[in-house]
What does this fold into?
Amino acid sequence: MKPLLEVRDMTVSYGMIAAVRSVSFEVYSGETVVLLGANGAGKSSILRAVSGLIPGGGTVRFEGEDLAAIPAHERVARGIAHVPEGRHIFGNLSVKENLLLGAWVRRSSLAGDLDRVLALFPRLKERYSQSGGTLSGGEQQMLAVGRALMSRPRLLLLDEPSMGLSPKLVESIFSMLADFHESGMTLLVVEQNAAMALTLASRAYVLEAGEMKLSGTAAELQDNPLVRSAYLGE
Amino acid sequence: MRVSAEFLRRACSPGKYFNARTVAAAGFIAALAVSRYGLLDNYLQLLLMLIGINVILTMSLNLINGYMGEFSVGHAGFMAAGAYVSSLLSVRTLAAFSPFWAFPCAVLAGGLVAGAVGLVVAVPSFKTRGDYLAIVTLAFSMIVKSVIENIDAVGGPRGFLGMDKLTTLPWVFFWVVVTIWVIRNFIYSRFGRGVLAVREDEIAADLTGVNTRNVKMLAFVVSSFFAGIAGGLYAHLIQYISPGSFDILKSTEMLVMVYLGGVGSIAGSILGATTYTVLLEALRPLGMWRMAVMPLLLVGLMIFRPRGMMGLKEARWLVPSSEREGGDSK
It folds into this structure.
């Protein structure tokens, strides 16, 4: 089986500093893959290079197609949606406008998609005409995810979906991601909350200082003594 | 003007009779009547026309500085392009034709040339991110000024005249309505939503698939087109244009009207342009001192209403019915 997303020898540099060094991994259709690692390990840089926000060396293939010459906005049209770290919602625009912008690449009728996303996040329905900036952190995260879903992605990239949320909200976000996984969606998740992330993942990769250190199924990594001591706090 | 009390009462209470279309139709009839039968004295008519031209300029700049969140400081350059092209056309080329057709064609041509110039400015400006637009547009307006000063065929620094006074109240009103209609429909279109996304968060705009470069270019071309239209109307109203009429002060005036009325708002643009034009006239007795009052007003505004009188808010009747909250016409 061919992978949906295939990353080979990716390098990302900020000036003289190499944040990601020759990283390779793949994501198969229907999988939930988690990238684990400490602050500054290069996880977010990988996601940004996959979605085209920053240039990266090496090759990124999506459904077999080399993405090198494809700018970020066209990658969305090809089916890659990225929920960025810090949510980046449009603060002065209403929830409705935020969601509609998520489907900017599609010109077909969006009414069905709006209903689908609002059914998924009833809270957003309550806040429908409120501006995004007035939402609470958890609601903003839901809005960011909902906005990404509006483009009907085949691969959803999530950068630290639990960041800055209360434990209860983290749990509900993760149970929602588990539902996405159940429904057959393909997810690539970057997360510092390793314990939570591993319950969700099919497979995981561990990054350290920009390099790939470990990889395996979630169960394997959960039993790995290195992971247990470094990321699960045991 | 004699209007029935019933009409006034209805016009003042938003509802069935008060929508963009009725306002446009009633305004156009009023403008026709005023200019045909001289219902207002010439000074008031001139003031109304200046207000209209300033509304067009303010809407044009608001598209870039308010809706898109970029910062252009050289819009007078586009106004100059429109003014000179339309004036040249009506004096040299179209003089033999009936002004009824020649005048709108000249104004439109001025707008189109200004739009094309806008595209030339936009291409290098939007290759980079950040505040480069301010620098590029500033340089651009200086280039326009010195180019015109060095072309003898258009009078160089002495300026250009010979246009008939073809700008009338109905024409100004017509172009104001066209500007509002086009910019409103643009803002509430898919592309317009992209413009707002660029202002709010360019990274997120990229991530939601907005083609930010195309969106910026299109907005800039639309904006410079209307600045050119305003230039053509201005030239055929004052009947004299010179490089000095389109210097950095003119651009500053436009900025003041945008930030006075309110960023990202059509109603704000109308309000800002009207307030500024009327105040400037009302303060005329102060002589030189009026130029001290305006900046003070601005400072006060920035302290008490930093987004302008209508910042990011829109008058309900200017919002397409499908976009209104709890839409009343479904």
